[in-house]
């Protein structure tokens, strides 16, 4: 509560923020929440066959996936941009990019530790749960600070998965 509550799920066809538990024990990634913005009308019967592009947003360190929804107000900003017809409907996902509690992974695989880069480039949990455009043309990756570095690193190394990189103030010397 000190940092503010996450936006509540939408009603009456409005946008919603869902909590998706993800993790990858085989990659040494503990279960953790990812927050998912779903645009207005996502659940409408008329949109049942519609697929949406996805923007993955990586948080900085220290931080967590809720920072994008509390501090950056993703739900309010996306709703306003959609209302003003500045963007098309899309899904926005903020995964836990730390690899564990208070762990500065720089979104890299670590020897004997969490395999964060591999985990973050596996988009199956989101593609399996939501109606996404399931190829690189429908995916962007972005971040701020160490998340900006992570977005550059992962986006450039995995151009087969992401078609757009959004990097804000990336760290200059990771690690």
How would you characterize the overall build of this protein?
By secondary structure, the protein is an alpha/beta fold. 21% of the residues lie in helices and 22% in strands. The chain has helices at 67-70, 74-83, 116-120, 124-129, 146-157; strands spanning 16-24, 29-38, 54-58, 91-94, 139-144, 164-168. It has a 6-stranded mixed beta sheet with strand order 1-2-4-3-5-6, covered by helices on one side. α5 links the parallel β5 and β6. 35% of the residues are buried.
Q: Main traits of this protein?
A:
175 residues; alpha/beta; six-stranded mixed sheet; 6 strands; 22% strand; globular
- pLDDT average, as an integer? 82
Q: Note the run of SSEs as H and E.
A: EEEHHEHHEHE
Largest sheet: 6 strands, mixed
Number of strands: 6
Regions with little confidence, pLDDT below 50 for 5+ residues: none
Described by its quaternary structure, the protein is single chain
Strand content: 15-25%
The total count of helices amounts to 5
* Major beta sheet, strand line-up: 1-2-4-3-5-6
Structural class, by secondary structure, is alpha/beta
Helix content: 10-25%
